[in-house]
Amino acid sequence: NGEKEEAKTALERAVRAANAPVPAHLQLGLVAIQLGDRETAQNNKRRCNEQLPHATQRAATLDARKCKRL
After folding, report:
1. What's the rounded Cα separation, in Å, for the pair 32 and 27?
2. For the chain, does the N or the C end have fewer beta carbons within 10 angstroms?
3. Helix (H) / strand (E) containing 1
4. Cβ neighbours for 33, distance < 8 A, ≥ 6 positions apart
5. What are the tens digits of pLDDT across the range 25-37?
6. Would you say residue 70 has pLDDT above 60?
7. Which one is predicted more confidently, 47 or 66?
8. For 55, which DSSP code?
9. What is the pTM of this model?
């Protein structure tokens, strides 16, 4: 559990930024589940769901830019 606690602490720091990547929230939620911290897991699931449409739009925009270069 020591390594998981360390991972959780590092991920909590990573997700403090407003533009934290969706995978950071996902990983924090997964570690929280493993540690029995349901509240943290649920909060990060919610943040993933909130940010996912924006991440998808950013990815689509990047893909469109790449296609224009072809």
Report:
1. 8
2. C
3. none
4. 41
5. 889 999 999 999 9
6. no
7. 47
8. H
9. 0.74
